[in-house]
Amino acid sequence: MDDLRSIMNDPVIWAIAAALVALVVMQAFLFIRLALRFSGRFSILSDKEKSVVYKTATINSIGPAVAIFIIAISLISIVGAPITLMRIGVIGSAVFELYAAGNGAKAAGADIAGDMTLQAFTAAVWAMCLGGAGWLVSTMFFTWQLGKAQGKLRKSSPQALLIMGAITPTVIFFVLMMNEILDKKPATPLIGIDKLAAAATAAISMVVFRQLGKVAPWLKEWGLGFSLLLGVIAGYLVSVYMMQGMQE
Amino acid sequence: MTDRIESYYSSTYIPAAHRIGQASLALALAMSLLVPLYLSFVLGGWPGIAVIWTAFLIVASFVGVIWLVEPVAYFPMLGVAGNYMSFLSGNIGNMRLPVTIACQSAIGAEPGSYRAEVAAILGIGVSVVVNLVFVLALVLAGQAIIAAIPAPLVGALKLYTFPALYAAVFMMFFFNAKRPAWAVIAVALGTTVLVLPISEVFNIVAAGFAGIIVSLVVTRFAKDDTA
Fold this sequence. Notes:
The structure holds two protein chains of two kinds.
Chain A (H helix, E strand, L loop, with lengths): L1 H7 L2 H32 L4 H33 L1 H9 L4 H14 L10 H39 L1 H24 L11 H20 L5 H30 L1
Chain B lengths: L1 H40 L7 H25 L1 H15 L2 H15 L7 H35 L2 H26 L3 H16 L4 H22 L6
Helix pairs in contact in B: 1-3, 2-3, 2-8, 3-4, 3-5, 4-5, 4-6, 7-8
């Protein structure tokens, strides 16, 4: 196991992980440059709007990043720091990686949380990387096709894009929200009331901040972040209250 | 002017976005496979093709459908460049999409417009950098940071961040819809998906697909208000 730990931190693996992180940053830089050129040429966004976007993106990335951080921490002890870096910083999501690693090790007859041979560990890494590769391949293939379809729709029926942009995300986030609230295996025996409180508080806060944003524009940037924080606090308070209720 | 934007967009901007996207994803694909190849053939950990095949089948049976449908389901919000960016960096539903809509809504950009497209790219770009800062902190000092935060706070963040995030983003999309009827249709559709016996893993992409199809149907019956 000690040998395995040193293999997990092998300098070559660190180097590949660092190169992948560099690739992601490079890609983001190239796309931002492309967008800024497009915007500059046809005055699509003003300088003020651009700075609003940068600020809004920064503020609203922090909440999810903290939560991802907490979930991803369990991955470090299992596959080591550099592989966590490349799987969470790039391509993957913590939940999928844990699942893939576990099943890779299982296929080699080992338990990911127990003592692993180098072979079992290698199988776990193969499972994670091949799993991630599926998304990359299909994104390469489909984005090309979808780009063409979107180009046609933009000409023939711009209204369709507007409606799709309104309906599709609303359905997706409604289902994501309900999946959380209706969690079939709640972490606490609270039948999801704590999560319901978190969701309801965040939803109501969002509506309030949205209205307030009309008179105080800075709230447009902070509204989502504040709603998130209020939701987490509400969920926590309800869980404490419920626990006390159960103890009595 | 509009003609010029349209021709620049379709003949210069979009082809460039495909070039950057295809090249970066191909490179990422090759690089990500270097690690298991190195473990297998340099360090001698090769577990045998049978083991890898079994592992691949287990993973593919869980996420194979998602591989195929996710890039399609998220495309209407992300666009060409946004798709390439989001699927390289991951964490789409829980980070890229919320950031995208927050940015578009902060400047009042309509879905599908050029303003929305530029805002999405700038927003996702920033979120990629912020996320990497956190991931770097995680791998360099993760245990120490977690130990320094009070345990109940860690637990609360872990349990309640995502229900709160999804609910707030849902409200944002709900009220951003240009016509309230579209938002109501979306909720009805979402409820239908939840009632059907589809597992949680698949119901999100099912929702995305249903959304795209119903949007096309609604388009046929809606009055044109893009003019």
